[in-house]
Design a protein that fits this description.
- It is a single chain.
- This protein is of the alpha+beta class and 288 residues long.
- It has 7 helices and 19 strands.
- The strands form 5 sheets. It has a 7-stranded mixed sheet. It has a 6-stranded mixed sheet with strand order 10-11-12-13-18-19, with helices on one face. It has a two-stranded antiparallel sheet with strand order 1-2.
- The longest helix has 20 residues.
- The N and C termini lie far apart (56 Å).
């Protein structure tokens, strides 16, 4: 049986064979090589050492590794007309997780926001019956385990169903993607393109989160413009509970304004007026 190596720092699975000299994902300036050097594991080892936490996270069925591993993202099952979408992937897939998904009707596709969350996406697809894996064309060169199941979409928007749209946000990666669910009051599943802050009232924008490299102002402006016409009440971040529940559209708008005002750094009266306006908007969110 072929062993597919998994990076212990970012959780990315590689095609079978000897481990590479280093992880391409971690050697990029957006990630990092672990302080103890490059380390590798595999799916069987992870299965012995970890299990999956399976429970609701603010209304969506969620999956995450326990104890935590690598970047420690969680995946979400998003209901949709014609079949649910699995948003993001993990380095480990288990029988219990597959059974929980099948009990809710299975999935029609897997959609992933960016390369840091590819995990063992091919294993997940195979376990779920060979469903397609959707990643953006701009990030195809980051795929470390190719598969016929992987479909690279292009452009800025892809309608998966009448109630689910993928939106290329860019910024963090060129193909960084968010998922917009139109069900109910709407929800934006933001991956790392818009990172939900620990106050769970704002988002922010970084080219590299672990290495603290800000996102370029032009990329944030482009992201703001791509999302300008979309309405949503909730924003789901990348990890457990890191969600904005209620008034998500306004929280995102205020966060765009805050970031762009600070990155622009205007002088004198213009700076004072922009700061005063921003403080009023932030105060409005906190009093809501």
């Amino acid at each position: 049986m072929t062993t597919h190596t998994i990076c212990a720092t970012c959780g990315t699975q590689y095609a079978g064979g000897p481990p590479p000299n280093g992880c391409a994902i971690c050697n990029d300036e957006r990630q990092y090589v672990g302080w103890d050097g490059q380390r590798w594991t595999d799916h069987d080892t992870l299965r012995r050492q970890h299990s999956l936490r399976i429970e609701e996270d603010d209304g969506l069925l969620a999956f995450g590794m326990t104890p935590g591993f690598a970047i420690d993202q969680r995946a979400l099952l998003v209901p949709s007309v014609g079949g649910s979408i699995l948003w993001e992937c993990l380095p480990l897939v288990t029988d219990d997780a597959v059974a929980a998904i099948q009990a809710r009707g299975g999935v029609r596709a897997i959609a992933i926001s960016h390369p840091h969350f590819y995990g063992a996406m091919v294993d997940w697809s195979e376990a779920l019956g060979g469903v397609p894996i959707l990643t953006h064309e701009a990030d195809r060169h980051w795929v470390q385990r190719p598969s016929p199941a992987i479909e690279h979409w292009s452009g800025d928007r892809l309608a998966l169903a009448p109630d689910v749209t993928l939106i290329r946000c860019g910024g963090h990666f060129e193909g960084s993607t968010a998922l917009l669910s139109h069900r109910g009051k709407g929800a934006l599943l933001s991956g790392d393109a818009l990172q939900v802050g620990l106050d769970r009232r704002h988002v922010s924008f970084m080219y590299s989160y672990p290495n603290l490299i800000p996102m370029r102002r032009a990329d944030v402006v482009a992201m703001r413009d791509r999302l300008a016409s979309d309405d949503f009440d909730a924003v789901y971040g990348y990890s457990w509970g890191r969600n904005i529940v209620g008034d998500g559209r306004r929280a995102v708008d205020v966060s765009f304004a805050r970031y762009l005002e600070r990155m622009a750094a205007p002088d004198g009266a213009a700076a004072s007026a922009a700061a005063a306006k921003l403080h009023r908007e932030v105060a409005g969110i906190h009093s809501a």
